[in-house]
């Protein structure tokens, strides 16, 4: 890599991608060299970020970046195109940071194979907020000592992917420890089985989609005569995710293949 990390941001006009693009543009050790946005294709990155020193224009597709060198691609677009974008960026020689939700374990298995073949790293964080990183670590600690838990996924009414990437990642990580125990097996319940949620990596997950929510996750652990609630709630702004995403951009070149979780590259966690 050069002294300054050349970054391409997918979803450069989006809620999270736009805030990150501004963070990259103002970072002393980074250079925003490209941004993906079908709706804003052709507009200058200086205009989109409010940073006059940012060169280049937004493009509609990663295919348009074939002649633009970049070190790290940050995927912040939509679930239906995220996988293709990631694989394209790997073929173009970039490391990848994934912020888009909706990718499955099978998707990540395919991405991992492609990343290893390209000798590149993919850092899939699900959520870049430090409070989420801590929730994940605390939940893993609890799962080593408790047998029963379920996850509730909260999001705004218009969020189409269920559950969120944060919850997918949390369920996956808990499943790496063990599967949650069920007093009554899911296939033995009396009534609509859907009311027990979906089983993901051995955990029951319930997705709530209502006005008034932005993003939230709660994992509830139960034991005889006691409960433990771990809950994260996000506000309306995307600024809490910028610092973690910038850290991921700086660290992704240190890994190979898919690494899941920002804490994997954070010292002291």
UniProtKB/TrEMBL annotation:
Q: Where is the Dihydrodipicolinate reductase N-terminal domain?
A: 5-128
- Report the pathway entry: Amino-acid biosynthesis; L-lysine biosynthesis via DAP pathway; (S)-tetrahydrodipicolinate from L-aspartate: step 4/4
Name a GO molecular-function annotation: 4-hydroxy-tetrahydrodipicolinate reductase
Q: Does Glycoprotein show up as a keyword for this record?
A: no
The main enzyme category here is oxidoreductase
Q: Which CDD domains match?
A: DHDPR_N (cd02274)
Q: Which domain of life is it from?
A: Bacteria
Q: What SUPFAM superfamilies does this protein's entry cite?
A: Glyceraldehyde-3-phosphate dehydrogenase-like, C-terminal domain, NAD(P)-binding Rossmann-fold domains
Q: Give the reaction(s) catalysed.
A: (S)-2,3,4,5-tetrahydrodipicolinate + NADP(+) + H2O = (2S,4S)-4-hydroxy-2,3,4,5-tetrahydrodipicolinate + NADPH + H(+); (S)-2,3,4,5-tetrahydrodipicolinate + NAD(+) + H2O = (2S,4S)-4-hydroxy-2,3,4,5-tetrahydrodipicolinate + NADH + H(+)
Tell me its EC number(s), please.
1.17.1.8
For this protein, the record's Pfam families field holds:
DapB_C, DapB_N
Q: Which Gene3D superfamilies match?
A: Dihydrodipicolinate Reductase, domain 2, NAD(P)-binding Rossmann-like Domain
Q: Keywords, A to Z?
A: Amino-acid biosynthesis, Diaminopimelate biosynthesis, Lysine biosynthesis, NAD, NADP, Oxidoreductase
Tell me the ranges covered by the Dihydrodipicolinate reductase C-terminal domain, including all copies.
132-265
**What InterPro entries does its record include?**
DapB_C, DapB_N, DHDPR_bac, NAD(P)-bd_dom_sf
Matching PANTHER family, A to Z? 4-HYDROXY-TETRAHYDRODIPICOLINATE REDUCTASE 1, CHLOROPLASTIC-RELATED (PTHR20836:SF0), DIHYDRODIPICOLINATE REDUCTASE (PTHR20836)
What family does the Swiss-Prot or TrEMBL record give for this protein? Belongs to the DapB family.
Task: Identify this protein by name.
Answer: 4-hydroxy-tetrahydrodipicolinate reductase
Q: What is the lineage of its organism?
A: Bacteria, Pseudomonadati, Pseudomonadota, Betaproteobacteria, Burkholderiales
């Amino acid at each position: 890599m050069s002294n300054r990390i050349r970054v391409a941001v997918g979803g450069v006009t989006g809620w999270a991608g736009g805030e990150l693009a501004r963070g990259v543009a103002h970072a002393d050790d980074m250079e925003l060299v490209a941004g993906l946005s079908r709706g804003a294709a052709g507009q200058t990155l200086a205009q989109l970020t409010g940073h006059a020193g940012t060169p280049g224009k937004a493009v509609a597709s990663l295919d348009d970046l074939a002649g633009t060198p970049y070190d790290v691609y940050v995927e912040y677009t939509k679930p239906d195109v995220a996988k293709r974008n990631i694989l394209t960026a790997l073929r173009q020689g970039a490391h990848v940071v994934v912020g888009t939700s909706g990718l499955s374990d099978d998707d990540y298995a395919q991405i991992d194979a492609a990343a290893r073949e390209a000798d590149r790293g993919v850092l899939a964080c699900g959520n870049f907020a430090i409070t989420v990183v801590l929730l994940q670590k605390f939940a893993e600690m609890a799962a080593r000592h408790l047998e029963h838990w379920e996850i509730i996924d909260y999001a705004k009414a218009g969020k189409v992917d269920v559950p969120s990437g944060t919850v997918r990642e949390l369920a996956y990580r808990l499943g790496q420890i063990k599967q949650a125990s069920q007093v009554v097996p899911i296939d033995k319940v009396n009534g609509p089985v859907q009311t027990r949620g979906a089983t993901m990596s051995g955990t029951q997950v319930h997705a709530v989609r209502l006005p008034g929510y932005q993003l939230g996750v709660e994992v509830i652990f139960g034991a005889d005569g006691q409960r433990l609630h771990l809950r994260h709630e996000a506000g309306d702004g995307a600024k809490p995710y910028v610092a973690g995403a910038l850290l991921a951009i700086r660290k992704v070149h240190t890994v190979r293949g898919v690494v899941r979780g920002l804490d994997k590259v954070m010292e002291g966690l």
